[in-house]
Amino acid sequence: MLFNYVGIFKKSLKLNGVFNIILSIIYSLIGYNIVYSSNIMWLDSVIWLPIVLYGVDRIIICNKNFIFTFFLFITIISNFYTGYMVGIFTVLYFIFRLISRYKSYGIKVFLKENKKCIIMFIISCLISILLASVILLPTAINLMESKLSVSANNFSMNTFGNILDLFSKFPIGSFNQGEMPYGPPNIFVSMFVLILVICYFKNNKIRLLEKISIMILLTVIIVSFNIIGINNIWHMLQSPVYFPYRYSFIFSFILIYMAARTLKYFDKVKISDYYIQ
């Protein structure tokens, strides 16, 4: 897991040196990993996520899809359940990366220039799913004969409670065993990362469009945490029994990604630019 994240920082974000190692260690020790270490079946996709997203970047920047296709396939067969969650986020991440690269010369021109990578992304997803069908088809047949059932309650727009409870999970040591069945998502990422996330929005070297699009991405995840129906979509239309919010590692990843983007331009920005005015 550590080396996977070191790789995406170095190759995709061009982040070198000690910060690369620090953020990689933080990703290995996020609250999700610590809590779910008692049930390691949920950790496979945490390991593969950085490589899959690096593959997305390779499609967008280099028009090369092997890394994405292969490692999305590996993610799915490692654990089809959390692999499904990674698949949803991969689509959102692809859209985010395209939007963050958008220039003001018009949507039609932009779509025309990115037509090849969009088609390549769709085809790569389909290939990965087809390759993984040796696992997916028998599993789907078994689930339809037993556990899998969908009712109107699975799409309820009711909320779990106060969304502000989410902030109680940022301090270290915020988890207790009583939260295992229905507790808030485990999103601890360290104060170091949270400070860098704040600096991300003050960093004038990062495009405003990127800041807006990643804020939308964060909002989608936060809304998913709070609305029962959307949360169930992430869990294959089922309400999880114990270990809730099994996709919360994605939220932690986004925060660490933002921290990495801040550090990439840290030496090019004056400290005074980060002052709150």
Topology:
Blueprint: H1 2-11, H2 18-28, H3 31-35, H4 44-62, H5 66-78, H6 80-100, H7 107-113, H8 115-131, H9 133-145, H10 191-202, H11 208-226, H12 228-234, H13 248-264
Helix pairs in contact: 1-2, 1-4, 2-13, 4-5, 4-6, 4-8, 5-6, 5-8, 6-11, 10-13, 11-12, 11-13
Descriptive report:
With 277 residues, the chain is mostly helical. It has one domain. The chain is 62% helix and 0% strand. It has 13 helices and no strands. Helix 1 (2-11) packs across helix 2 (18-28), helix 1 runs parallel beside helix 4 and helix 5 packs parallel to helix 8 (115-131). The model has no long low-confidence stretch (mean pLDDT 84).
What's the short story on this structure?
The chain has helices at 2-11, 18-28, 31-35, 44-62, 66-78, 80-100, 107-113, 115-131, 133-145, 191-202, 208-226, 228-234, 248-264. With 277 residues, the chain is mainly α. The model has no long low-confidence stretch (mean pLDDT 84).
